[in-house]
Amino acid sequence: MSFLQMLVTASVLTALLYLAVVSVTSVVAALRAGGRREDSLHSSEALAASPLTMPVSIVVPVGGSTVAGKTIEQILGLAYPEFEVIAVVDAGQPETSALIDEWQLESREFFYRRTLDTAPVLRIFRSLRDARLMVVEKEQDRRSDALNCGVNLARYRFVAVVPPGITLDRTALLRAMAPALRDPVSIVGVASHVERVPDAGTSSDRTGRRYQHLRSIRSLMFARLFWGRTSRSLSADGGVVIWQRDAVLQANGFSRTPVDADLDLMLRLQQPGGGEDRRFVRSEDAFGQAAALERATLQTISRRRQRAALQTVASVGRGAGASIGAKPIAFFLESELITPTAQLWIVMAAVLGAAAGWFTWTMAILTVLLLSFGTAVVSAVALLLRGAHPLSPGRDELRALLLLAPLEIVLYRPIHTWSRLAGVFSSGPDRS
Q: What pLDDT score does 203 carry?
């Protein structure tokens, strides 16, 4: 046996052992935490009715989205004592006219402090139908610019960023704000998961959309089991984020240069300064649901996430993550880099090794099957945990997800992995 063959064999065994440890740890933690968590209905009702519950400014970066109207309507129906909604739209988009008609918008003079530099604001509207709604029309720019514009206009201490297209229930904001309400001084941000579900009216790429749903359910499980147990956190899953407005202003807002402006701000806000204990945390609950993405959009997001993860690693290497702690950094590296790399290497090494005559094809196939089995077990436990909470998948959807789970490594991961690899060799700012 040559040295190279021994090295490849040892690396495959090491990767399999690592994934086995991750899988067993996840399964044991999920089984220990299994069962429906007993949230107090009376507690939620008390928070919703209490005048002491801190008000929130909700920013909806509409851009050119055509589904913002439905999201805004659901947001305005939230059971929360006091909040405002600031929808930021790009100039020249047809969605502006649709919102004007739907919400009876009237152009108003509005004076505010332009603390964060943004693209020019052209018009500001107030809704005659619901005074809590403000629509801002500005020149088109990056998503980070729209967020800075919303922060400038926000009146309240906490600013929630809710992307268009999310379906939510009336208590979503109460659940998301729970960590900040418990500790409004040190918590500078809270991230809540958004679950990707197949659109019932879409028949194209149904399998791919179900794999997105399965992956989203696993991500929610990891947030509940691991991220929810850390005092500080990072989030790169594109959910809903609530920011402490003063902290964002002190950090000069969302930067235009990073790949992921949210992830960059999470790191910067948790840096030591002035003796303050500033923490960004992840909620254990899902804020709502959104439709699974088209394949092209998913690939673009996967490439951007890979670039963002590498950029974060570089920041941590320069000491930017020193105040976050070893555990959150380890969780982030495990989920965003190490586990996907280990899975890719096992498949590549098994196939190439068999082609080179180092392993038999039977051994290569058994290795891939072992990897598929481990992934399927974790997925099954994630589905079990998800089924113990509200809005769980129906029986038919659950059956389909369980049947598809063992084939994920073969049918879905190659596309996702290729997109992540493409992100390693591409560059560019966050233009989402």
A: 62
CA atoms within 13 A on the CB side of 127: 23
pLDDT at residue 340 in the model:
86
pLDDT in tens, 190-222: 999 999 998 766 667 788 899 999 999 999 898
Please give, one letter per residue, the 3-state secondary structure of the chain: CCHHHHHHHHHHHHHHHHHHHHHHHHHHHHHHHCCCCCCCHHHHHHHHHCCCCCCEEEEEEEECCCCHHHHHHHHHCCCCCCEEEEEEEECCCHHHHHHHHHHCEEECCCCCCCCCCCCCEEEEEEECCCCCEEEEEECCCCHHHHHHHHHHHCCCCEEEECCCCEEECCCHHHHHHHHHHHCCCCEEEEEEEEEEECCCCCCCCHHHHHHHHHHHHHHHHHHHHCHHHCCCCCCCCCCEEEEEHHHHHHCCCCCCCCCCHHHHHHHHHCCCCCCCCCEEEEEEEEEEEEECCCHHHHHHHHHHHHHHHHHHHHHHHCCCCCCCCHHHHHHHHHHHHHHHHHHHHHHHHHHHHHHCCCCCHHHHHHHHHHHHHHHHHHHHHHHHHHCCCCCCCCHHHHHHHHHHHHHHHHHCHHHHHHHHHHHHCCCCCCCC
Give the pLDDT score at 414. Answer: 72
**What is the SS3 assignment for 130-191?**
CCCEEEEEECCCCHHHHHHHHHHHCCCCEEEECCCCEEECCCHHHHHHHHHHHCCCCEEEEE
The CB density around residue 29, as the number of other CB atoms within 10 Å, is 18
Q: Is 171 left (phi over 0), alpha (psi -120 to 50) or beta?
A: alpha
Q: How far apart are CA 16 and CA 8, in angstroms?
A: 12
Q: Strand pairing of 187-197 and 279-291?
A: parallel
Q: Is 188 exposed, middle or buried (0-12, 13-18, 19+ CB in 10 A)?
A: buried
Token readout for 361 is: 């094809």
The reported pLDDT for the residue numbered 413 is 75
Confidence at residue 241, expressed as pLDDT on a 0 to 100 scale: 96
Return the pLDDT at 33. 78
Q: Angle 94-103/68-76 helices, nearest 10 degrees?
A: 30
pTM for the predicted model, two decimal places:
0.89
Handedness of CA 114, 115, 117, 119 (dihedral sign): negative
The residues of the chain scoring below 70 in pLDDT are 1, 34-52, 200-203, 273-275, 317-323, 388, 390, 415-416, 418-432
